[in-house]
Amino acid sequence: MPLFNKKPFSLMEPPKDLDSKEKVFQIRFTKEIFRDYQEYLKRLNLYRQRVWTCKMSGKTNLTFEEALVSEHNAMEKARSIPTELMAYVLRMTQYSTLGLHELVNKIYANLLEEVFEGIELHANKDGSVVPCKILKILDSDGTKMCEVGWFGREKTLINTSVVKASDLFYRRAPVSRNTLKLFIRDSTTQTTPWVIHENLAKKYGIPVDPPNNIMHKKRRKREENETEDGRKKMKDGDTHVPIKYPIDDLLVRPNADDPALFKRPPLATDFRVPRCSVGDLLMVWDFCSSFGRVLRLSPFPLTDMENAICHKESNVLLVEVHAAIFHLLIKDKGDYFSVLQNKKRKLKVSLVTWTEFLCDFLEMTKSEELSGNIASVRRGYYGLIDTDIKLKILRELVEEAIKTSAIREILSERVDQKQALNATKRESTKKDKEEQSLHTEIAMKNEENQTDAVQDGNESVDELARGKEEKDKNVSRSKTEGKRHRVWHLETEIEKLSIRSSPLGKDRHYNRYWFFRREGRLFVESADFREWGYYSTKEELDALMGSLNVKGIRERALKRQLEKFYNKLSNALEKRTKDIMNKMLLEEGVLRRSTRVRAQPKDNPSMAFLKYVNKWKDN
């Protein structure tokens, strides 16, 4: 059922004592019945307003009927998950206490490591990679073996053999993260912990009784509530056990002795793309920025990406992004490469032919929501496709690109380099502590000698000791500065090798806070992954940090991270503010000039993406 202003909504109950001959008014898509025409119109007008949200996908600004269709499509996609995987996914979901994002990532990673009867994947055979299907899983002396059928040219099984499960691998994940997310939402009745529908549990033989740890948590929660009630009833002066902080943020209660917290600043939400699609926009842009060298794609600002994706015409920035990923997939010689070979496609992506490669990819995705746009792309109407669909297409492309050997090699190299730098940093820190300990010991001995000298009346020795101490301080200060510079350099190098952006932390209500190295904003993602906002000024950052309650586990950890990266964050925010001011001055200059001379559209900073030139393009 669609959400009304993001809250649950109930349909009208039918009128009582209806007569079969009575004239009534019925809303077609809800089947609600009204005796009064004005009430019918009032309800119908409510359904026509864009205040409805699709409960499954999180799409907002929809009419009620559009939200119903969106929910239907989302449920169809959720149920497109291969039946061979359903029991495994549901079993991992049942009574899990992870958040949706963490649960999806865990299941997704596990699926790539597991094998299932009936699933199609690949294996090395006679020196080449060949598609196959698992017919039966065997257990041979503790080693998992699989009987597989090998596919021929016409997608028919030509022969069978037994191979090790560890020798099988997926060229394409058996299910996408987005499909997993929709499937979990569609299959559960509650989220903390996750509980699947009873009929599904019965169908797949999944236990419905909560595990002992969940029952223990429930009992402990009940005892905590009883204890809290008992505390409220205590008279002043009665003894009670003090609470040891930090505790779960939702259990924190205000105390008269607590320091005053700032009011949390409101989030800016002036995105051009739908708010439920901001995550896809950030994912695609961050991937292009992080792997620009291997993609042969020179960097571009996030705002240019956002403006380009919302533009109603095909533009060079989006063409270059698509073409760069297509070239990467072609070089990998995976499933996409096979599709192009079967179509005897020339492997040169250009400004003219890129839409043909896009259509081939959309056919390969087997997603009705995406492949339903093939006709529009072929007719040259790519620009008119809904913005959220454009971003979903790019997200699918990125997920496919991440699995290529070129990207995996880079990831592996960065992991190794990062581990080596972390080891160097740990060794450096250990050495610094040893030196500090030695320096403290020497200082104490000098102080003892100085005391003895004074007691003996030996002033000259005293003066020498003081001079030596001053000299030691200067040498120590120089060393400290050198150590700080070395640690800063190591941390900078480690950050450069960051594989993927991860949230800085979560607040009391599990909202996640994201910072991207190349974008001067602090983004906030809601706990249900459906809404996004951001902070863009140093003042907002300061107010946010002042609003965090360190008695809570999550907000304490988040505040520490914000303090750790404070200089980097505040500098990025201030730089972006200055850049915006410069752009405003430039726009003002364009407006003044346009009163005298008709200015070209590309002169407007918001249309800067039209000037994009890929300087790293491999010609």
TrEMBL record:
It comes from the Eukaryota. InterPro entries: DDT_dom, DDT_domain, WHIM2_dom, WSTF_Acf1_Cbp146. Residues 222-238, 463-481 have a biased composition (Basic and acidic residues). GO terms for cellular component: chromatin; nucleus. Its main location: nucleus. Pfam families: DDT (PF02791), WAC_Acf1_DNA_bd (PF10537), WSD (PF15613). Residues 275-335 form the DDT domain. Keywords: Nucleus. Transmembrane segments: none annotated. Residues 211-238, 442-482 are annotated as: Disordered. It is found in: Nucleus. This is DDT domain-containing protein. It comes from Urochloa decumbens.
